[in-house]
Amino acid sequence: MDTPIADLSFEDALKRLEEIVHKLETGEAKLGEALDLYEEGTRLRQQCSARLDAAQARIEAIRLGPDGRPAGVAPFDGG
């Protein structure tokens, strides 16, 4: 892979991770390559997880007023 993991979009990182999982599950990679792929996959998973956490932190929930109408937004609490 030529593009640094930090520069990949979420979708591209996830696609690469799926490719790695496929290679590891099918046994296409020899031991040395499999270890390198596993390490890359770990970094990709961490990158995807960090991007999802950041996206969740930006999500806002619509707050309703006493009359049931939208009254503004509040940070999403994940619960």
UniProtKB/TrEMBL annotation:
UniProt cross-references to Gene3D superfamilies, sorted A to Z: Exonuclease VII, small subunit
SUPFAM superfamilies, sorted: XseB-like
Keywords: Cytoplasm, Exonuclease, Hydrolase, Nuclease
InterPro entries linked to this entry: Exonuc_VII_S (IPR003761), Exonuc_VII_ssu_sf (IPR037004)
NCBIfam families on file: PRK00977.1-3, xseB
Function: Bidirectionally degrades single-stranded DNA into large acid-insoluble oligonucleotides, which are then degraded further into small acid-soluble oligonucleotides.
Protein name: Exodeoxyribonuclease 7 small subunit
Lineage: Bacteria, Pseudomonadati, Pseudomonadota, Alphaproteobacteria, Sphingomonadales
